[in-house]
Amino acid sequence: MYSARERLAQKKWIEELERAADELELSDDIRSTAVDLFLSDVPETDRSKRAVVASSLYAAALIGSDGRTQGAVADAVDVSRLSIQSRWKDQLEAAGLDAPGW
């Protein structure tokens, strides 16, 4: 889990996540799950944070049964689709969830 201090320290990236979620028209539940996933897996370098924002949004959309494509999420966050593809399953498993086998 993460602390309130971590949430405050990552405010810039949470705002970026919210901006992309607005563009994708994601529900409040999916946004909340995405923030939780992001804060549970914040990389140390800013360079990697945008990719984790994207994979958090994609994984949260899957959890929330919202069929967003990796490409749509990647475009909203301005990362490559590969950035999402290489992270989302590990993120789900780190959160204690089973990633689909497809």
Written description of the protein model:
With 102 residues, the protein is mostly helical. It has a single domain, classed as Cyclin A, domain 1, CATH 1.10.472.10. It has helices at residues 4-9, 11-24, 28-40, 46-63, 70-77, 81-85, 88-94. Helix 2 (11-24) crosses helix 5 and helix 4 (46-63) packs antiparallel against helix 5. Pfam families: TFIIB. It comes from Halovivax asiaticus JCM 14624. GO terms for molecular function: TBP-class protein binding.
Summarize the structure.
70% of the residues lie in helices and 0% in strands. The chain is an all-alpha fold and 102 residues long.
Task: Describe the SSE topology.
Elements lengths: L3 H6 L1 H14 L3 H13 L5 H18 L6 H8 L3 H5 L2 H7 L8
Helix pairs in contact: 2-3, 2-4, 2-5, 3-4, 4-5, 4-7
